[in-house]
Amino acid sequence: MRTVLKTALPLALVLAASSALAQSSAGLRYNEGPGIKLGESLVFHPGLDVQFRYDSNVQLVDRSQTGAPFMRLIGHLHLATQSAQRRTDAETGQVVDSKIQFRLKAAAGYREYFSSDDKIVEQRAVELEGGLAFKANLSRHFSFQVTDDFARSVTPINANEAAVGAPVTTRGVISRDVNRAAALLSLIPGGGRLTFDLGYALGLDVYEEDFLTKKNLLKHEISFLGKWRLLPKTAFFLQVSQEFQDYYNGDGSQQFVSGRPFRGYAGLSGLLTPRLSVLAKVGYGNGLFDTQPTHASQANFNSVLAKLEFGYQFTPTAQARVGYERAFDASIFGNYHADHHIYFGYDHAFISRFLLNLDLDYRRRTHQGTANESAALPDSVALDLLTVAVGLDWQIREWVYIGVGYDVSFRNVQDSVTTIPNFTLQNYIGNQFYFRLGVSY
Hints:
By secondary structure, the chain is mostly beta strands.
């Protein structure tokens, strides 16, 4: 959950994740309250979020769009050590250090469509999230943490970058299981101006549908982050990561191959003024794929990476952020995809119990290495992705809230590929309106 306003009332922290629930394919995000204390150090966070939504384009298709109302239920149970909010001294405002921090989390979501169309009803789904986080501050100079995060998502098949020629009998959704386990060592020598983080992560990305099992991906990642604190809240940093990706069910007919993506950045993060924050980094990335398909002329990423984000706090209860990022990652459709990503967000808490938020997200995405010998596809496929979400929540009591919102998602694929039969990267526009009611501790 995104903590919106650092000095807002606790209710603003409770409300922070409203419109991020926009599309049915979004993660299981929900509000979290101050929690129920269990002894001196543990806090229990139960909650239930009930949403009533209308989706104008359930299957996210270009033609023959069908809308339907649906209900989404999200329940969550977290067990954690006390948050920074609970460890803050009311008189001094100082956060009391905690030697051990951990969180055990579980969440489940269910959505049910109300329609006479069987293809729409088949979009019903159970989605899951779970994980743990443990951090030990062994001394002023050394800490260790381990995390594990799991998520099962179910999305319309046409919302995905699916394989061409999916079986006709296939259900119109794609079920995806993603797990990432990580360990991180942090060293803070001397007076604390320098920080060194060394990490390792193991990731698994699995598709439950048989026709997509060749896309299952195993990832190993080694990472390093070094920071030099120039000012109390501003630091220069050097960030390097090396991945080892393996499509372990792939064969010679697969249109993309395993690789060893490398990313390196140098940058600056922190406060430029008491109200203005910045994250600026520039670097280099290379996909380092094992082999290059002879039919794909641009099957490897080898270019500049960058990110620039500014945040501004207008008042203690209103802030905005805007940013740009150039990035690449593994793709289910081709060797990789590269993004030009522009985003904007605004959050405003007012009249003590209301929170308004607005989010805009645009990506110019290019899939490279998409061509194969069995389909008339070009070497690359470009598309535009846009989402806009606006929501308003009202905290009725400390433990109960209601909210309303509107979201729109848009995708435009280059014309040269949308006419190919069975091509699943379709144009679409989808609108959702929602009302939600939740209880959370």
